[in-house]
Amino acid sequence: MKYHFRVHKEEDGYSAQCIELEGCITQGDSQEELFENMKEALNLYVQEPAESKDLADLPDASIRKSKNVVEVPVDSEVAFSFLVRYYRIQHGMTQHQVAKKLGFDNVNSYQRLERRKCNPSLKMLSKVKAIFPEFSLDFAVI
Q1: Each residue of 41-66: pLDDT tens digit?
Q2: Which domain holds residue 105?
Q3: Which residue, 24, 36, 133, 142, is most buried by CB atoms nearer than 10 A?
């Protein structure tokens, strides 16, 4: 999952703003520092608290890279967590409902899927895909 940042050369370095996510802005003294800061800002932006109903928009596939527009990937673990939460909310489901459909004994086990650094098994990935058919693992890890 890659978002797009518009990069600006400043007097003392660089700044960048994510095109798809209003308010996702960062800066850096060098292009290398800026890129690292863009990744960090992006990962933090898409990680909403579990109780939040706010959802970041998905990346816009129609935006193309250019001289001043760069693609920045979301860490795959963050992208997976974000997409599980995104589709749960899009489907109007609670964590309890999804936990039950996935066969978890309690909601705490499910909540690990919506947290960063989860490591789901192939069996769990196939269950998630069965509940949310539009979920794309390719989208989560690219």
Answers
A1: 999 898 876 666 678 889 998 999 99
A2: 76-141
A3: 24
pTM of the predicted structure, to 2 decimals: 0.85
Tell me how many domains the chain contains: 2
Residues of the chain with pLDDT under 50: none
CATH assignment of the domain containing 92: 1.10.260.40
CATH number assigned to the domain comprising residue 11: 3.30.160.250
| HEC assignment per residue over the chain | CEEEEEEEEECCEEEEEECCCCCCEEEECCHHHHHHHHHHHHHHHHCCCCCCCCCCCCCCCCCCCCCCEEEEECCHHHHHHHHHHHHHHHCCCCHHHHHHHHCCCCHHHHHHHHCCCCCCCHHHHHHHHHHCCCCCHHHHHC
Same domain, 12 and 50: yes
